[in-house]
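ok so i was messing around last nite and threw this chain in just to see what happens. nothing serious, just curious
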Amino acid sequence: MKVQVLYKVFYNYFLSMKEKKIKVAIVYNEAHPEFYKTPESTEKVGDFKEYFEVENLTPMEEYEMMAKKLSKVGLDAYTLNIMDNFQIIIDEINKNRPDVIFNFVEIYKEIARYEMNIVGLYELLGIPYTGATPLALANCQSKALTKRILREYGIGTPRFKVFRKKAKAYKSHLKYPVIVKPAYEDASVGIENESIVRNETELKDRIEYIFQYFNQPALCEEFIDGRELNVAVLGDKKPKVLPISEIDFKKMPDHLYNIVSYQAKWDPLHESYHKTIPICPAKLPKRVEEKAKQMALSAFKVMGVRDYSRVDMRLSKDNKLYVLEVNPNPDLTEGAGFMRSAATSGLSYAAALKKIVMFAYERGKRNRK
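result:
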């Protein structure tokens, strides 16, 4: 009897060792990887003390690092750069079909709105993938549409107006100051210190700047002076809100507005990059914290995003919450943004990445039934 039991134990162990690892293709799009190189010198702009140490990883190196992290938690992960050619995806699936695509394609042929088309291709090919669906990406890509949907569901967002073509004057009932943004960009593209305007002359100049340089409508919304909160949501069928992160503007100099501009997010040589300091968890009154979490979860659901998202909010000086944007598939750089909240919740970087992969994998299994 004991021999039979031991045989069964070893047999089950042998089977478990023989189980095929889940194959994960980390798919991204860098059309010109040769343009990336470590700068020979880094000369900051302006006289300020650096708060963050500047890292010089290329996007390709970051994706390779993700693959190594996923491999350490039991997945068979590798990277695939489609280089502005969707045929690369089709060829890869024909010869080396992955179980899951970890989707990092945010732009195609230099057009951000094509992001949803690449995801549509995954669906046509029948491959489970991480993150938002084509419809959710399309809806969230339009800042104005997002705000209209949020309002329809009673979720607070700043008052706004969209201007679509050049005019002699741009009339609105918005209260100054107003922030002017490109209507269809993400990752703070087009948001700079000059985006905050305080009168009709400045409004006209900035709207026409958007028309000229971004060739798209200009979204103008009332600027909410207050605290900026990043509320991360993780999950598929049962999403949950992670600890709230705040961007602390206390060290921001007087000549810069308290906003997370493009330079604050992506330019380590710019002063605002070092003066927008994250705090996680944010110190908030309990009532405000619970309200922010409830609003983020509601926004996550009504916008149809899944797996992981970051909802950016403003908390006004009179403690009113306003959703600025719902970000599907936000940046997953270790130690930043979404992953800062994941780490505060107790998840390691590799564990958080694996969870996102497994949401897609399990969804794929359900869809095949």
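not much to say yet. The CA atoms of residues 38 and 57 lie 8 Å apart.
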